[in-house]
Every structure is written in C-alpha cells, then in structure tokens.
C-alpha cells in the first residue's frame, strides 16, 4: 500500500482538486526530485492505489476517470514547469512513437515513458490510448521511428498486443519494439513475446537503459 501523504494526494485526485494536487506534486520539484522519482514514487503508486480502490468497489469508474483526468493535467503542467524534453541534441534525433494497443484505455503510464524519452533527447510522438493496429502500422510506415513503444494494462488487451507485434515485425525498416504496462509488471508473457523485443517492467529499468544508450553515442536501437 501507500503512505498517508500519498493517500492525501489520492484524495486530491479523486476530489478533482487540481490546485492541491499540483501543490503536492510541486513540493517534490522544489525538493529537487527528478522526473523518474516523481513518476515512479509518486504518480505510479497513486494510480495503482486508485486502481486498487476501484477493484475493492470503494470508488466508481467515474471517480477513477476524474482522478486520471487530473493526473493528465498534472503531467502536462509538470512538463512545462520542469522543461522536460528541452535538451540540446544533434539535429537528427532518434525517433520513438508511443501507443496503447487497440482496446487499451489507460495511457498515463505511456505518457510518463514518452516524457523520459523526451528528456534524453528523442523526437517523440505520443498516440495515446486505444489505437487500432492498422493505424499504428500506417503511422509507423509514414514516420519510420527507431523505436515503437506499446503499452497495455489489462489482460484483455493481450490478443491485440500479439496482433500488433506480428504486424510491426513485418515492417521493412525493422524498428525496435518495446513493451510495458501494468500487465507486464504482474504477468510473465514470455510465451507470447519473441526474442527480439524489449520488455520493461518499470520506469527505473527503462531510465537506466536510456541513460546507458545515451552514454554510448546515441546508438539506441541495439539490444
């Protein structure tokens, strides 16, 4: 579970109190906490606790949606205040696109992932939730990213994940495929996943991978 401070933060989210929720989050910025800490130690556990409350019938779907909406607001405001993504990089940035698979509505975690890529100097495109496989493929063919990140939070999205992976693996420019999300952190999906994909179960391991690749001359797409 989470501590009392985070429970207060969750209450601000559920009450749609943008001001108090932002003041709570901003206190971590003042204390010098980086994006990884704020995402992994504040927002993620708060969202998981909200999910737990919903599973226990302590809150409604409407409550969960309100809290998620406030979190999206906080993420947008944080990106402006912290100036994430405004790094000095070479003109030809590596490119990464981010999308939830078809049927998957939870995109906040994916938004955090995209923010981390921004901070490491990537050119990013965030497609958000519930993107049809055909549209994912069409955009990928048009933009030709180095990396394609897929997210899923429910087991019901696994068939769409498998379908999307199979389609992406047929792309002629052979992008690196990264998979993450709540389901990945809970279940083992090795039987569904081919060996040439990367799986990250948390933001800490993803951040370490980004940092290591940054130190190796931006050769991001090596396994």
UniProtKB/TrEMBL annotation:
Keyword terms of this UniProt record: Cobalt, Metal-binding
Matching CDD domains: B12-binding_like (cd02065)
GO cellular component: cytosol
GO molecular function, one term: methionine synthase activity
Xref: Pfam families: B12-binding (PF02310), B12-binding_2 (PF02607)
Gene3D superfamilies xref list: Cobalamin-binding domain (3.40.50.280), Methionine synthase domain (1.10.1240.10)
Coiled-coil ranges per UniProt: none
Domain of life of the source: Bacteria
Residue ranges constituting the B12-binding domain according to the UniProt record: 93-220
The keyword Transferase is assigned to this record: no
Protein name: Cobalamin-dependent protein
Organism: Aquibacillus koreensis
